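Appendix B. One record, verbatim.
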Amino acid sequence: MLEQQPVRRFRNVPELIAKSGENLDCAYRAGVMTIYGRSTQERQIELLDGRTIVDFQRGSYLGLDNHPSIVAGAMNALNRYNSLQWSGARTRLNFAITKDLEDSLAGLFGCRAMVFSLVLTANMGVLPLLACGALTNGRRPVIVVDRFAHATISYHKAVMAEDTEVITIDHNNLEELEDICRTRSFVAFLCDGVYSMRGAAPIKELIRLQEKYGLFLYIDDAHGVSIRGRYGEGFARSEFGERLNDLTMIVASLSKGFGVTGSVVMIANEAQERVLRRYAVPHAFSMGPSIPAIGAALASAELHKSPELSVRQSRLNAMNVFFNAQWDEDAVKHDLPIKMIRIGDAKRTISIAASLIENGFYLAAAFFPAVPHDKAALRVCLTADHHETDIARLCALVKDLTKS
């Protein structure tokens, strides 16, 4: 009897491995994957062989990941609590410092706040509850997912499909989304705020659809937090009002612009928070961020209330303007810190990335499945800690390498 093949509705891991394995093998042989080193100052990395390179890969957009006050916050919390982690479910006992952080983030971002160890675990906790209607007074939404939503959202399509219809639409296709809103009684749209590989969501237009159709918005703004807003509330959150509305949830990484580790879910009301605290699997059955991570996050929250935040945001903007001036292509001339320099062929992209390392720069070589086939690119992450001289030298080198 022939073995019955599984039904593949949302994932086909064997095919993904088959289509990406050769290029991954090439990238590892070229030495552009899983590189080890240590951060020294600003964006410099000392590799194991003693070489120093300038890092354009990390997403610490404000340069806070090695900020002295944030490192001190981690050490002070560790000394105060004399422990790394509370080894038990958060529905039982919690360190008081966890509540301090959630209260601080709630005040900073104008919402209720729950912290998780990763954006992945935050999405794991929220999305099944959203799909079954537990967060929307029993109304079960049709789930619509942007095709380029982050993998930590797309991974949960099969789980959400246990409870509701799940539809994937083309990237930023508002016409397609509005057609679904017209024909379904209740729709939830899942997308990124700032995409890790491709621009940003049209937040103002999504709010228009929300106001017109009662669209629920779930936005993963991992790369958008801190870079926008008076208190660094982020690319997505800064487009909403003083308080988050009941039809919006935003999950944000604390390990990118915020400069620490962990994630936060921005929640509108007490009923939603109560459901998440009782039934979100990573909260009810696992642990949250470690004590040093929470201490560092509290220090970053204080920095976000200080004048230094706007100074660093302005510095990041200046680096962005300078980078844009080096290029003629409209594709990179935007006001976000993630730049994609399109190469096309994956192996050529890998080869260029390897040459850049030899010349003192590290950029991520992005190829399938991170980006579509034949759209391989070099990803540049700009930060407030970069310098114009390094950016100018990098851009000139990339231009030379891509001509050959």
